[in-house]
Amino acid sequence: MRRAKGASGPLPSAGLSRPARAGTYEVQMMRAPDDPGDVVVHVAGCEQITGTSRRMRADETRALLVEPGIKPCPTCRPESELGIDVA
Question: Residue 4: is its pLDDT beyond 80?
Answer without folding.
Answer: no
